[in-house]
Write a structure and sequence with these properties.
single chain; alpha/beta; TIM Barrel; 2 domains; 14 helices; binds flavin mononucleotide
């Protein structure tokens, strides 16, 4: 048990959110994380509204612990997903990629806690003003969609802490208890972790994607697609095509055409490792095997405690 303002407000044992992840975080992963003492999050961005409803009902039947649903607000069907979340009275909603002010009061009226994901100080301040219950800031090390400023987690931590009074959670590049302790020493009230859980046994990512994450070394990812929404991808054939088009001055429309529809699904979910869009963070370079969520939590706890003891020895 670690007590922070985040664990107190959200009723969880550990200050760890498993980030919502398209094609990876269905109810099974979210449930395993919530049962382990973190805050498990269903990633609704890759779901139709009726699929989301099914996932919410399954997690409610499987755990009494708090859980949440993430919705990237840029998606065309975000409003329909939000209706399902409100109807089903999910305990927590994490919004990303959009304005925090649009929905916060509506969620609060429905008795739902709200967390917004930001990648710069301006949106952190807007989120605070909108009355969110917590803020996740995500450095550009992170897997998936990223901020355009390309600010690192370490810098955002120092930039935001002075200005933000609501619980503040760090995301991007976190794969160990040492990293969690370090960020908490800098003032984080908790962390959000994505990539490490994308490779977990309970993740719905395809086994070939998990195997590729495990074999990725440092430098295996890159931030591309900046003209249409910066995204950190694992390097594969599709990435090479994107990179070549970008180096040749490809326009936003050309990039959209190349991306097409369903790239993330065919890669991360269906296992086409050459032509799929494979979203993963720099921390993939530190992920050595596929583990269960419980094993991941055990390792996070022991590396956190080892690091704490090392610091205590230094007088
Ligand atoms: C495969 C994958 C899919 C993701 N999908 C989403 C998403 O749908 N919505 C969202 O807000 N963030 C998404 N993210 C970001 C994560 O929620 C989390 O903030 C990020 O992974 C943290 O950085 P890390 O990957 O270094 O742990 C995704 C990340 C990954 C790796």
């Amino acid at each position: 048990m670690i007590k922070t303002s985040f664990t107190e407000i959200f009723g969880v044992k550990y200050p760890v959110i498993q980030g919502g992840m398209v094609w990876c975080s269905g109810w099974r992963l979210a449930c395993a994380v919530s049962e382990a003492g973190g805050l498990g999050i269903i990633g609704s961005g890759s779901m139709y509204p009726e699929v989301l409803k099914d996932h919410i009902r399954k997690i409610k039947a499987a755990t009494e612990k708090p859980f949440g649903v993430n919705v990237p607000l840029m998606y065309a069907h975000a409003d329909q997903l939000i209706e399902v979340m409100i109807e089903e009275k999910v305990p927590v909603i994490i919004t990303s990629a959009g304005s925090p002010s649009k929905y916060t009061s509506r969620f609060h009226e429905a008795g739902i806690k709200v967390i917004h994901v930001v990648s710069n100080l301006k949106f952190a301040l807007k989120s605070q003003e909108a009355g969110v219950d917590a803020i996740v800031f995500e450095g550009f090390e992170a897997g998936g969609h990223n901020g355009t400023e390309e600010t690192s987690t370490l810098v955002l931590m120092q930039l935001l802490r002075k200005h933000i009074r609501v619980p503040l959670l760090a995301a991007g590049g976190i794969g160990s208890g040492e990293a969690i302790l370090g960020l908490m020493a800098m003032g984080a009230d908790g962390v959000q972790i994505g990539s490490l859980f994308a490779a977990a046994r309970e993740s719905s990512a395809h086994d070939s994607f998990k195997a590729l994450i495990v074999s990725a070394g440092d430098g295996a990812t890159d931030l591309v697609l900046k003209k249409i929404g910066a995204t950190r991808l694992l390097k594969n054939r599709f990435y090479n095509e994107v990179k070549e088009l970008e180096l040749n001055g490809g326009s936003a429309d050309e990039l959209k055409d190349l991306l097409g529809k369903g790239r993330a699904r065919i890669g991360m979910f269906e296992g086409d490792m050459e032509n799929g869009e494979l979203e993963i963070g720099q921390i993939a370079g530190c992920i050595e095997s596929v583990k269960s969520v419980n094993e991941i939590f055990d390792e996070l706890k022991s590396s956190f405690n080892d690091a704490l003891n090392r610091l205590k020895l230094m007088e």
